[in-house]
Amino acid sequence: MSNRDVEVRREDLEHIRRALEESARIASSFTPDQFNTEQKGKRGPVTAADRAVNEFLLETLPREGDGWLSEETADDHGRLDRRRVWIVDPIDGTLEFVEGIPEWVVSIGLVEDGRAVAGGICNPAAGEVFLGSVETGISFNGQELEVPVRRDSKDRLVLASRSEIKRGEWAAYEDRGFTIQPMGSVAYKLARVAAGLANATWTLVPKHEWDLAAGAALITASGGVVKTLEGEVPVFNRLKPKLTGLLAFGPGQEHLFEG
């Protein structure tokens, strides 16, 4: 890649970082009595904070010619003709946000030609910011990371959806020689794996692109492996923006879970 490619990507990441910073401020300014929580059918709750962050990101992120896909915006299929598309979840883990569990995040992914190439995930409650791209690698709270390769199979940590565990979908993975830790936001789990804070995470149920794009970019930026249940590199900006599931492993971790 050229120096210009890296320069452009660093500009993208700074754009994402600033957007995350303000989004965190907006979301954190809401108190429980201001949430105005509603149910979106099977997709769960949405709050006034989700909508406020979404409005800010829509005004801030897309530049001329960019596409947009968000959980809180009516889908505009014009994005399908755009090379660069912002795929965001204003608050991923809204249930945790409402319940005061510090596992919700603002998730911003940048997709080019269907590939997740840059992303930023911020957990305001924990004071954590994950940024990364395929050109620049990954950083955590402003520090560039050389993600450690954990080769000791005795301390493998897998992050799992709290709701999936409650539904019994992880029962088959008990007593497999690794620790399963329940956690809220899908994006947050992916970010923590990318930063070397866990070995792996996966979901075997369909997920929307806005749940996965930023985290997939971070996993790739770290040198890890992210793939669909069919074993393929995930492609984003689809007509129907949903994947059947996702498998994600930190650098050098995939072989620890073979079989």
Q: What this model shows, in words?
A:
With 259 residues, the protein is of the alpha+beta class. The chain has two domains: 3-144, Fructose-1,6-Bisphosphatase, Chain A, domain 1; 153-257, 3-Layer(aba) Sandwich (D-Maltodextrin-Binding Protein, domain 2). Helices cover 28% and strands 27% of the residues. It has helices at residues 3-28, 48-60, 94-99, 162-166, 186-194, 209-222; strands at 38-39, 45-46, 67-70, 84-92, 105-112, 115-123, 128-133, 137-140, 143-144, 157-161, 179-183, 200-203, 207-208, 225-227, 242-243, 246-249. It has a seven-stranded mixed sheet, sandwiched between helices. The chain has a five-stranded mixed sheet with strand order 11-10-12-16-14. A two-stranded antiparallel ribbon has the order 1-2. Helix 1 packs antiparallel against helix 2 (48-60) and helix 5 (186-194) packs parallel to helix 6 (209-222). The chain is globular. The mean pLDDT is 92.
The CATH C-level name of the largest domain is: Alpha Beta
CATH homologous superfamily name of the largest domain? Answer: Fructose-1,6-Bisphosphatase, subunit A, domain 1
Which radius of gyration do the C-alpha atoms yield? Answer: 17 Å
Q: Quick one: overall form?
A: globular
Number of distinct helices: 6
Low confidence ranges: none
Biggest sheet strand order reads 3-4-5-6-7-8-9
Helix/strand-derived category reads alpha+beta
Distance between the termini: 36 Å
Give the total of beta strands: 16
CATH topology of the largest domain: Fructose-1,6-Bisphosphatase, Chain A, domain 1
* CATH architecture descriptor name of the largest domain: 2-Layer Sandwich
**What portion of residues is helical?**
25-40%
